Amino acid sequence: MSSVTRAALDQKVAMAKRCAHEGVMAGAKAAVVASVAAAIPTLASVRMLPWARANLNPTAQALIISTVAGAAYFIVADKTVLATARRNSFQSTHQVNTHMPKN
């Protein structure tokens, strides 16, 4: 087995934190966009459609908007973290392969 140095572990932890941070930022941006995209038709329909006016109280409206925002956050954050981890994995493999001595 290969021994793992403290520096290598620190580098992997830093890379994982960077992946997570990128995912959080991308998820937050997506949540804001999704909130606006869901709020406009929800609020407009409550004003214009009699069925929506009768059946969608403010709590239901907030639930619709927040559900869309939450789903967008988690979907985009997950995809971003996975894509960043995959990209870093390929970079790490490439670095290991370039530093290995040729036979």
From TrEMBL:
One Pfam family per UniProt: ENOD93
Q: Which positions, given as ranges, span the membrane?
A: 20-40, 60-77
- Taxonomically, which superkingdom? Eukaryota
* InterPro entries recorded: Enod93 (IPR005050)
Leader sequence residues: none
- This protein's UniProt keywords: Membrane, Transmembrane, Transmembrane helix
Known PANTHER family for this protein? EARLY NODULIN-93
Protein name per UniProt? (wild Malaysian banana) hypothetical protein
Q: Which organism is it from?
A: Musa acuminata subsp. malaccensis
Q: What is the lineage of its organism?
A: Eukaryota, Viridiplantae, Streptophyta, Embryophyta, Tracheophyta
